[in-house]
């Protein structure tokens, strides 16, 4: 065999037997849902707010702070309610030190333009990618306070307004302490959004707009700078409702390289003068009866090809696995997933969906394996198979099961056919009692195959069963052969990284050792192995690549450096 465990996936091990459900699973028939899974409520929220954050080369030293201040919004805590659109304006990906830090996050979209077009044109071009009902503008050199979006949207809802404006505390960047910047800071320590007698001033980086309103007004005019003032006046003229609050919702960085201060586009430059003249002409035309919508530029830019999505490359790997239950109805001695020890229970569809979503936009496994424990102990198995296909659309999908509990899932064969998921039935003993029980499984699967087309394989998993550690239960001890290289070389699990508790783990032994420890409080001999750090979902692209390419590492010395084969006793649990 293919040794015990999920080794080369094709040989992934499972449990079978026909014993009572384990203490660990605590399931059995009683936990099968009364409401079909596909009728249960979806836990994934629709985003509430899009944030567009364009940045130019002058803002590069500050963008990271701006991005993190949006990622840390209270509105986004625990739920992906904020979608952040990062636009590198005139910065190619290879010259952008920022994008690779954030592109992997599920709620971050990244784009670039080859020619700088200014932040407002960037917003117009990105409009087609918005996903929610509210749009917030963020500057690449400013910092949003954590409550900015939560506060603004709450106020918009409470007051039924269309556009929110707040205040920003200004500060001088430590790299820009020249006199003119300091003077401006002394003059206006707080930049406020306020009502004027003939309109409003809304600080750009505090602005939150109902998306529909932005569209109705045909967006910003495609000025390189100053288009926010133009937009706000048109919104006022068109009769939209404003809510300006005294609340400080951000920190505004004063510096000499900002768009409003640099020598090319800053106040007083020819560019500004030209824009100002155009602005006055537009305002006069509106006074003379033109509709404010006429002076927006969204229609011209919303299908622009100038904005290029810089989708991160997915990391290709051979195989990736997930446990849909940590319980098993078999008890194979020395199970390298510790599933014979009743170390855990079923993992819910909602949890699996979330855990996979942390990684499915970053990793492209050739093969994705649905394992346990015995997967059929999980009452949501059919929906889990469908969800796995959604998350891994291009992977060979394999469900590994002993077969004994498949009878509990009458809708599974249809899902196997529709998702192209293969079913691999693993046989764990040659004894007559076991073989007899497998016959019933074969009959069931023959019936399924008469009706549905799916690939079915039977494989022996007990022929070369090996010890991966010493002892049982709380008494287990690592092999400690002290030859990590040799251990890794013969390791059947070396291409079996696991998604477990949302993180990425090197192999099943390392991942599920945690469960074993939670149950038995293992001896100090395991301490160094229990100190292993899995990869967190918020890792950078570089860290992910390094993790996936890592081969032998120190922790491998806990495993045997040579094969210690033994005859696996019947894994059937006593009735
Ligand atoms: S006890 Fe372990 S090795 Fe045996 S079938 Fe279950 S998961 Fe596989
Ligand atoms: S720790 Fe290393 S040798 Fe042991 S199972 Fe994991 S990958 Fe294999």
Describe this structure in words.
29% of the residues lie in helices and 19% in strands. With 575 residues, it is α/β, with parallel strands linked by helices. The chain folds into two domains: 48-309, Alpha-Beta Complex (Spore Coat Polysaccharide Biosynthesis Protein SpsA, Chain A), CATH 3.90.550.10; 315-472 and 495-552, Alpha-Beta Barrel (TIM Barrel). Strand 16 (422-427), helix 13 and strand 17 (456-460) form a beta-alpha-beta unit. Helix 10 (349-357) packs parallel to helix 11 (381-391) and helix 11 (381-391) runs parallel beside helix 12. The chain is elongated, with a radius of gyration of 30 Å. Residues 1-44 have low confidence and may be disordered. Bound molecules: iron/sulfur cluster (2 copies). The site of one iron/sulfur cluster has 15 residues, from loops. One iron/sulfur cluster is lined by residues 4, 13-15, 328, 330-332, 335, 337, 339-340, 373, 428, 571.
The set of bound ligands, ions and cofactors reads: iron/sulfur cluster
Look at the structure and give the CATH class of the largest domain: Alpha Beta
Largest sheet: 10 strands, mixed
Euclidean distance between termini CA atoms: 28 Å
Number of strands: 21
How would you state the average pLDDT, rounded?
A: 88
Q: How many domains is the backbone divided into?
A: 2
> What structural category arises from helix and sheet content?
alpha/beta
In CATH terms, what is the architecture of the largest domain?
Alpha-Beta Complex
How much of the sequence lies in strands comes to: 15-25%
Give the CATH H-level superfamily of the largest domain: Spore Coat Polysaccharide Biosynthesis Protein SpsA, Chain A
- Poorly predicted parts: 1-44
Number of helices: 17
Q: Kindly identify the CATH topology of the largest domain.
A: Spore Coat Polysaccharide Biosynthesis Protein SpsA, Chain A
Q: Give the overall shape, derived from the CA principal axes.
A: elongated
Helical coverage, percent range = 25-40%
Radius of gyration: 30 Å
